[in-house]
Design a protein that fits this description.
The chain is an all-alpha fold. It has five helices and no strands.
Amino acid sequence: MKTFIAVLLSTIIFVIFGFFMQHKIIEFTDKYEKKISIIENEIQNDNLETAEKLVNSFIDSWQKDINFWYYLLNHEFFDEITSSIQIIKKSIETQDKIVSMIYIELIKVNLQNILQYEKLDLDHTF
């Protein structure tokens, strides 16, 4: 009986932790989707100086936040986002809006991929 209770309790704790992590992942990706959308709007409106400041802010914030998530989630997406934001930074410096818009979309796709690969459902459980 003690074993059954221990297994049941650990299963409940594991499931609660999974839902908690799911919520935190959604918050994390939403935060960066909003930031990249703001950068996208500034680039579309030809406010490249403001966009450059926002990109630098994005990079600083991103480097702090990925230290925790990098080891828990699929790090390939984080590497792709990190390299894409560096390309966006350079394309803003050279005033190449098309390249920056391409890589903004790539960042959005990678943020969505983080959610898709880490969501709680039966496909990812078994």
